[in-house]
Specification:
Number of helices: 12
CATH topology of the largest domain: Rossmann fold
Strand content: 5-15%
Largest sheet: 8 strands, mixed
Helix content: 40-55%
CATH architecture of the largest domain: 3-Layer(aba) Sandwich
Radius of gyration: 21 Å
Order of helices and strands: EHEHEEHEHEEHEHHHHHHH
Distance between the termini: 42 Å
Shape: globular
């Protein structure tokens, strides 16, 4: 097959998400993958996540460009990429926050080529070594502000997501950031802070190893997530996260008072009420 017949896809950011896109896209033998990553390019090529390096002069040749970098640098990269793409190119990001990216590219002449996307998929591991091809299969994928994306460009993106087995849901970018703060970002903060609390209180690591059960392991699992990924997410989504933290801290304080006053009946009633979250989660399966 002639090189010109390949669909050329560039991936910027070759960690867990970008690398997994690379592996999943290789199911189509008509695709040629190009990668760009300041730290992981050599390892990504060694692992076969991409075929070639994506240099700046190749950007105008790409049919599709995927931005899978930390969220705080996506707005700058997105504007630069949009300056140099060909007319029918699709560009989408995979970041966990959306509204600041939307604001950054608003009014760009090539705004219609961009889709704000957030595949809700991941593990507590990071880097190209953590990538695997089935990461997105069966996962929810949020796409935002789709009225700003040219219909034929949007359709191209939806075909990619569908081929990967993702379920797609539309939402405006501001609402996305609010809701994801509640159900994702807050849980990561909780896990990090639980890990910190245990490390502060329990000086003997052997006791953590010996006495920690599956409940602790599952609750603190997210504390193994990459600080390079999550610090920018927390900072970029500061306002809704702070609102969620206020409510969370109020609930912890109320529980503390119940425990201090030994209010057994009130505590049991509260816990029974909260059990409802289990049925909500079970309905998602």
């Amino acid at each position: 097959m002639n090189e010109k017949q390949f669909t050329k896809i560039g991936i910027i950011g070759l960690g867990l998400i970008g690398g997994s896109f690379g592996l999943a896209l290789q199911n189509d033998k008509n695709i040629r993958l190009y990668g760009q990553d300041k730290y992981h390019l050599d390892k990504a090529q060694e692992l076969g996540l991409v075929h070639e390096s994506l240099t700046d002069d190749l950007i105008p040749q790409m049919d599709i460009i995927i931005l899978a970098t930390p969220v705080d640098v996506i707005p700058k990269i997105a504007k630069n990429i949009l300056d140099h793409i060909k007319p029918d190119a699709l560009v989408f990001d995979t970041g966990s926050t959306k509204h600041k990216i939307a604001q950054a590219i608003a009014g760009h002449p090539n705004r219609g080529n961009f889709l704000l996307a957030h595949p809700i998929a991941g593990t507590e591991y990071s880097g190209p070594e953590a990538a695997f091809s089935s990461l997105f299969n069966g996962k929810m994928n949020m796409i935002c502000d789709t009225n700003q994306t040219t219909p034929c460009i949007l359709e191209k993106a939806l075909q990619i997501f569908d081929n990967m087995g993702m379920q797609t849901l539309e939402m405006n970018s501001k609402d996305h950031d609010k809701h994801i703060a509640y159900v994702s970002h807050l849980s990561h903060i909780s896990s990090f802070m639980l890990g910190k609390t245990v490390l502060d209180l329990e000086k003997d690591e052997q006791n953590i190893f010996t006495m920690a059960g599956s409940g602790f392991a599952s609750t603190v699992r997210l504390a193994k997530s990459s600080p390079d990924t999550w610090t920018p997410i927390f900072m970029e989504n500061k306002t809704p996260i702070l609102q969620a933290l206020e409510e969370y801290i109020d609930n912890l304080q109320a529980f503390k008072v119940m425990l201090y006053r030994e209010n057994r009946s009130k505590m049991k009633a509260l816990l029974q009420k909260i059990n409802y979250i289990g049925s909500v989660i079970d309905n998602l399966k």
